[in-house]
Amino acid sequence: METEVSPLQENTPPELKRTPLHAAHRALGARMVDFGGWDMPVQYSGIVDEHNTVRNAVGVFDVSHMGEIEIRGPEAMRFTDAVTTNAVAKLKDGQAHYSGLLYEHGGFVDDILVHRVSGQHFFLCVNASNQEKDFEHIRAQNRLDCEVEFASPRYAQIAIQGPKALETAQKLTKTDLAAIRYYWFADGEFAGAQARMARTGYTGEDGIEVYIAPEHAVRVWNAILDAGRPMGIKPCGLGARNTLRLEAKMALYGHEIGASISPFEADLGWIVKMDKGDFTGRAALARQLERGVTRKLVGFEMRGRGIARDGYEAAVDGVPAGWVTSGSPSPTLNRNIGIAMLPVEHAKPGEKIQVIIRNQPVEAETVPTPFYKRTK
Amino acid sequence: MNYPEDYRYTKQHEWVHVAGSTATVGITDHAQQELGDIVYVDLPKPGTKVEKGKSFGSVESVKAVSDIYAPISGEVLEMNEGLATAPEKLNEDPHKSAWLIKLKLDGNADFSHLLSAADYQMYIGTES
Predict the structure, then answer these.
(1) What fold does the segment set A294-367 form as a domain?
(2) Beta carbon pairs, A and B, within 8 Å
(3) Domain definitions of chain A by residue range
(4) Average pLDDT of chain A?
(5) A346-362 burial string, b = 16+ CB within 10 Å, else e?
(6) How far apart are CA A133 and CA A254, in angstroms?
(7) Which residues of B touch A309 (CB under 8 A)?
(8) Rg for chain A (alpha carbons), in Å?
(9) B36 vs A2, A10, A46: nearest CB
(10) Is this structure's pTM higher than 0.95?
């Protein structure tokens, strides 16, 4: 038996980076994997069990590998707006949004969350494996004399996700979490630590993401597990995080997005505000809009027997037409789902496509997304 | 989990049990643990010839696809049909009821490259 898509190496080269919760994961019996240079838990009790726990109750994820970049100064708003795709000027204090960091050619440097702490202070949450690159990319464009700080070493991050997430987290803070709207945040005390509590997540469920200083991480993690025990909380790894985000059709850098993919191709036109003024990548995006996008991401479900996996070829009428950006069994739907990059004329629901699984075309059909949407 | 003494094992985590001219092949408990929740099994139909060391099928978990390699050469007599609808059985009983295929062995099968239960357990002990 040999693993082709291989998250399973357990040998950990010493150069892998560790979060402050590394020993806690080991103690909980997690299976660890190399995730973009970080030694991270992929699963504890099992991917399906953790996935279902988040859909039905509450799960807790160590996402301390994620990066943080802070932009401060009198021109912080103008500068942040100039280097990202979404409309930073529309954010209020305590509000966050999903956004893109683009190259001049219109491809993604990264997808990020921008939090407005104040009009002169923006807090960016970025992907783990991109953080150094993102920081250099932003700093190189700093013409407005802002302070751009690589702040990752100052933060650990823990995500509490699921229908019981707020009830769990509320036991640990005096801040009224229900009063924080979706994609807003508040600063306060959480489990005795100074924290930034954001109503954000990467699972398609309600939840809170807590940013704290690394020295508090173990205590806060244990406090969350204790507080959530009556609700059936479980620690969850990157395996469940991936199946959860895929069902919610949230993009993963290196799969749905990357340097050669534009926001329009990634079906993320909603994070691009072309009318907000100039920003890095805007000219290229304007040209792409003028010419028309030729390929686009679309969700699909397998109709034949087989599981689509990342990187498999997709075909239309037996002719190679694109590729699978993410594919997996869906534990919630009990079907095999995926996202594919296809010619724009086929990137709409109801199209018959084939996924090439070990040299065999297997029937699939494009479907509306997200695959899963929680009932509010 | 018990690794039966009368089975032989590969470093790719398959087992084989020979009775007369018939060999039963499966994946080891260690393999199913490594894979996690198994959701799909792809096996060859009866009549297919499999060759020692070559891939004859695959097992998929939520996270990963793994090829399965034949411990010895032979012709497929039977595949475990139940696994198509209940692949999770591979997580529950990999050494017994969740066998994968039964092979009719070629005349004089060579087992010298296969590991004993003790050697296999020592091998997975050093691997992890």
Answers:
(1) Elongation Factor Tu (Ef-tu); domain 3 (2.40.30)
(2) 71
(3) 22-64+155-247, 67-153, 294-367
(4) 95
(5) bbeeebebbbbbeeebb
(6) 14
(7) 65
(8) 21
(9) A46
(10) no
Joined tokens for residue A170: 């509320």
| Whether the predicted pLDDT of A221 surpasses 60 | yes
Contact: A10, B128; criterion CB under 8 Å: yes
The single residue listed with the structure tokens 């979404």 is: A86
Of A188, A213, A183, nearest in space to A198 by CA: A183
pLDDT by residue for chain B (128 residues), tens only, comes to 689 999 999 999 999 999 989 999 999 999 999 899 999 999 999 999 999 999 999 999 998 899 999 999 999 999 999 999 999 999 999 999 999 999 999 777 778 889 999 999 999 986 54
The minimum CA-CA distance between B125 and chain A, rounded to whole Å, is: 12
Rg of chain B in Å (alpha carbons):
13
Strand residues in chain A grouped as ranges (E): 2-3, 31-35, 38-43, 59-62, 67-72, 95-102, 108-118, 121-126, 147-150, 156-161, 185-190, 193-198, 207-212, 234-236, 295-302, 313-316, 319-330, 335-343, 352-357, 360-367
Average pLDDT over residues A217-225: 98
Task: Kindly list the domain boundaries of chain B, sorted by start residue.
Answer: 8-127
What mean pLDDT is predicted for residues A88-117?
98
Distance CA B9, CA B112 (A): 11
CA distance, residue A31 to nearest chain B CA (Å)? 9
**A67-153, which class in CATH?**
alpha beta
Report, at the CATH architecture level, how domain B8-127 is classified.
Beta Barrel (2.40)
CATH superfamily placement of domain A22-64+155-247: Probable tRNA modification gtpase trme; domain 1 (3.30.1360.120)
CB atoms within 10 A of CB A129: 16
Question: What distance in Å separates residue A119's CA from the closest CA in chain B?
Answer: 42
Give pLDDT tens digits for A264-313.
999 999 999 999 999 999 999 999 999 999 999 999 999 999 999 999 99
Dihedral sign, Cα of residue B78, residue B82, residue B88, residue B91: negative
